[in-house]
Amino acid sequence: MVEKKIILDIQNLSISFQQYDKGFARTDLDVIRDLNVTIHEGEMVAVVGSSGSGKSLLAHGILGILPYNGVLGGTILYDGEELTQKRKEALRGNEIVLVPQSVAFLDPLMKIGPQIRKGKKDPASREKLNQIFEGYHLKQEVQELYPFELSGGMNRRVLVSTAMMGNPRLVIADEPTPGLHMKMVRRVMSHFRELADQGAGVLLITHDLEQALEVADRVGVFYAGTTVEDADVRDFDKEETLRHPYSKALWRALPQNGFQFIGGTQPYVKDMPKGCPFGPRCDKYCEKCKGEIPYRKLRGGKVRCLYAEP
Ligand SMILES: Nc1ncnc2c1ncn2[C@@H]1O[C@H](COP(=O)(O)OP(=O)(O)O)[C@@H](O)[C@H]1O
Ligand SMILES: [Mg+2]
Fold it and tell me: Best mutation site among 26, 56, 221, 265 for ligand 1, i.e. most ligand atoms within 8 A of its Cβ?
């Protein structure tokens, strides 16, 4: 079998915010530490984490659209070469597209049609957009409207349409389907799947593990700003094939596994425990877990836990 080429390789990514407190003392808020994600050609990788775990920041870090006080560390390789800010700006909207979490990313002053077509007026672009709109049950008249004239659900479908317009090599979809009906969610997901099947890399960012398991090839489990596990989707068939206690907890919380939730909450950046961020909620937590935890290969995946068994 031919090894598929790696499109995106994120190694030990960190994102922190510099903040100035009273008296001009600077504090760094380390929101993301040690984040690792690899996406091959034709692969759909889901990054699954609860709200506030840093998922949108990950998307914005890849695209080079972090807020001014956000500092990026670690390495992002795109096609084997470092993805510098300059390269991000050149590729963004062409080879690399974002389906943002917020509809606020739409330009309020530009009509929908020209906005999605990026001003292109040729018959082929018009025809393609017409087809996409038909697939998403958007009337063609919508192209003549402004974002404020559309419902939330319509704007969301407009955002997804933007990604379908070009021939992206890397799609980053940040919680692309909230507020959509189940049927529409399935359709959107199957379109992302098609993009992957045609060779693109797709990063699906979601808090919904069930949704991820339906379409993705691999799952990166994300907890409090850190990747704790990289697993094949099939590893989620059984609890035993998973590696990290947080992934196992997510598995047990699935409806088919009885909605068993664990106690406690994800720690906030300012009161992050030393070492393993999941430690305080884990039965195996001990002194060693408060130190450095390597991200290691295990059974065809990866895990950041000292106790994960072979
Ligand atoms: N500009 C910012 N300055 C400081 N903290 C921020 C900023 N943007 C986001 N954060 C913090 O980073 C964390 C992760 O945010 P986000 O990536 O939006 O999470 P998610 O998308 O997983 O819900 C949150 O705790 C949020 O408060
Ligand atoms: Mg988000």
Answer: 56
Return the pLDDT at 2.
65
pLDDT band at 3 (very low <50, low <70, confident <90, very high): confident
Distance, CA of 188 to CA of 196 (rounded, Å): 13
* Number of structural domains the chain divides into: 2
> Among residues of the chain, what percentage have pLDDT more than 90?
83
Is the domain of 78 the same as that of 113?
no
Residue 269 Cβ < 6 Å to ligand 1: yes
Q: From the CA of 267, how far away is ligand 1's center (Å)?
A: 13
Tens-place pLDDT, residues 78-110: 999 999 999 999 999 889 999 999 888 999 999
Q: Are 178 and 198 in contact (CB under 8 A)?
A: no
Q: Based on the fold, state whether residues 234 and 116 are members of the same structural domain.
A: no
Count of CB atoms situated within 10 Å of the CB of 241: 17
**Ligand 2 centroid to residue 175 C-alpha, Å:** 7
Q: What is the pLDDT of residue 119?
A: 84
Asked whether residue 160 is assigned to any structural domain, the reply reads: yes
Helix (H) or strand (E) holding 250: helix 245-252
Looking at the chain, the number of H-run helices and the number of E-run strands are 8, 12
Residues 287 and 161 occupy one common structural domain: no
Same domain, 80 and 202: yes
- The string of pLDDT tens digits covering residues 249-267 is 999 999 999 888 888 889 9
Residues 46 and 159 in one domain: no
Looking at ligand 1, which residue's alpha carbon is closest to its atom 9?
A: 57
Domain containing 257 — which CATH number? 3.40.50.300
Are 153 and 79 members of one domain? no
Predicted confidence band at 238 (pLDDT cuts at 50, 70, 90)? very high
Q: Is 114 left (phi over 0), alpha (psi -120 to 50) or beta?
A: alpha
Shortest CA distance to 168 belongs to which of 199, 189, 193, 191? 199
